[in-house]
Amino acid sequence: MRELEAVYTVWLREMIRYYRAKERILASLAMPIFWLFIFGSGIRAPVFGGQVDYTSFIAPGVIVMALMFTSMHSGISVIWDRELGFMKEMLVAPVSRISIVIGKSLGGATTALIQGTIIFLLIFGIQNLYSEYFSGVRINISTFLIVLPLMVLISLGIVGIGISIASLLDTLEGFGLIMNFIVMPMFFLSGALFPINNLPEWIRVVTYIDPITYAVESLRFIMIGFSSINFVLSFSVIFVFTFSTILIANYLFNRRS
Amino acid sequence: MGIIEVRNLTKVFNNEIRAVDGINLKIKKGEIFGFLGPNGAGKTTTINMLCTLMKPTSGGAIVCNYDIIKHSLEVRKCIGLVFQDASLDDRLTARENLELHSRLYGVQKSERRKRIDEVLELVELSARADSIVRTFSGGMQRRLEIARGLIHYPKVLFLDEPTLGLDPQTRKHVWDYILKLKKEYKITIMMTTHYMEEADELCDRVAIIDHGKIIALDTPKKLKDNLGGDTIILDIPDDDVEKARKVFKKAKIFDSQVLLSVKNAGREIKKVLEKAKKNKIYVIEANIRKPTLNDVFLHLTGREIREGAASLRDELKRRRGMRGH
Q: Taking CB atoms and an 8 Å limit, are A88 and B73 in contact across chains?
């Protein structure tokens, strides 16, 4: 009970902070929206043998992008907490470290989920207004209900990466570097923006190592009904990925403090 | 049995730096115990170990009857801690900060509001309860942190440099709270400081720590009495230093200052000045000083407690400057 209360407390704090920083909500929505509209409208080539238009094709990828940016933020927040001293307040409290990591992770995942949902609803709205956009996206309650837990799983996995990296780093500056050299390539290699079947063999190998690929593919299967990778496979990979990053995050966080 | 018992507590960093070097202590219930020493003496490291934030290299301690290594969770339940540097969430309001803390410490929901209001009142922040902490001054944040450390009614409160970086007025204010805590809550307080006046004013007993070792431990009064009275300080020209060494054989001479320990400075200063005049030592300035804990430290180590103050002369100048305002 005590530990649950602690998880809830750490989560609650993340929520209050998220609510207070409204500009953050906007900032992390801006990027995916630019991609959807500017990039999506610019390249309107049909994909999957002409069965799906490009905006529909990148819609799941852009949701993953939103999840990535928001989830990585919770990694940054671990460093912030450390620099601002609040981390010590949590560490000296009579609760276990695991509860702190879980609370932080759930907080990060919840914010990511909110951002992802906003984009999902945005796509839905646009589809209703302009039928030439996102025509291939199957949007209804049942899709949403499957997308939701998928988004939670993906966010938790990325939060795990964020917290792990934050536990290894000392400064925020270092985090920027990681964002540019790890997170961005992970996104670009994931097949979020182009079908992986089109890629040359050697890049495709890297693509298959990138866990984000499976996140995008599983979402894509649910949202538009097509994917390059079998859904059961991509879902299983995501599941294992999330489970292991959270474990690693917990280990590294504990070792650090 | 003491509420805190420390046995041979040692912390070695990187296999060579002995930050805390075999400390032994027994702190009684309800006492304000001061840990006095220069920066880097090992005060914060000791506190961190007692609060279970850091594992000792060897030795150990009992806090509230619990072993700090084996029962760290139990120890954490019964202590409150005010850190040396800020540890509030500055995007939250004062009340939210206290709320989070009471949840983390498992304060019952029905109790929370009452206790939050109570501690806010104690540190006179009730009016600002719902303001974002970011808008608080340094002194207000410190007070809020003290309030936070009390919400779960700890048996022992650790204060790590509670008045560091505060202006003299606010510092006095914080002192008042600390004394109030002792009186009203009968809480045991262990505080670190490198302000001698602070230790002198507040603490029942003081341990002076240097290079990770306790070099003296007693009440402030006894520590000062051991020095044997007042000090007469003569500022002399550099050229006369050699002469002074011969004339005032018992004196300590730092730079161009002669320090004489006497029983009663007021009575004996005339004699000292005459002696100087007779021996053609020019006295630029003569000062009398009642002993402070700083003198105790100086006496024990031959150094000033404050690294910043290069010499006694600087320290005196600083004090004169302050008095003038």
A: no
